[in-house]
């Protein structure tokens, strides 16, 4: 499964990252909070949470709104 990370600018395209790369980043303790792009489906985000729970990790998910428009949001995944 590929996950799209959040864009740095609204005109940029989201960066794709594999699930394996996310796990490697968690194992190296480089990062444990991921901001994912709104182009990811809600279904994919729930599958990601389920994947981490099967691995014995706690994962939290929320939408982060950064503007007044309904389309101005991203997903935040916090894995412990």
Task: Kindly summarize this structure in a few lines.
The protein is 28% helix and 32% strand.
Q: pLDDT below 50 for ≥5 consecutive residues: which ranges?
A: none
The number of distinct helices, counting runs of at least 4 residues, comes to 2
- The fraction of residues in strands falls at 25-35%
Q: How many β-strand stretches? A: 5
Structure description:
This is HP0268 domain-containing protein. It comes from Helicobacter ibis. Pfam families: HP0268. It is a single chain. The protein is an alpha+beta fold. The protein has one domain (about 1-80). Helices cover about 30% and strands about 30% of the residues. The chain is built from two helices and five strands. The protein has helices spanning about 20-25, 40-55; strands spanning about 1-5, 15-20, 35, 60-65, 75-80. Strands 3-5-4 form a three-stranded antiparallel sheet, covered by helices on one side. Strands 1-2 form a two-stranded antiparallel ribbon. The longest helix is centred in the middle third of the chain and has 13 residues, at about 40-55. The protein starts with a strand and ends with a strand. The mean pLDDT is about 90.
Topology:
Layout: E1 2-5, E2 15-18, H1 19-27, E3 33-36, H2 42-54, E4 59-65, E5 73-79
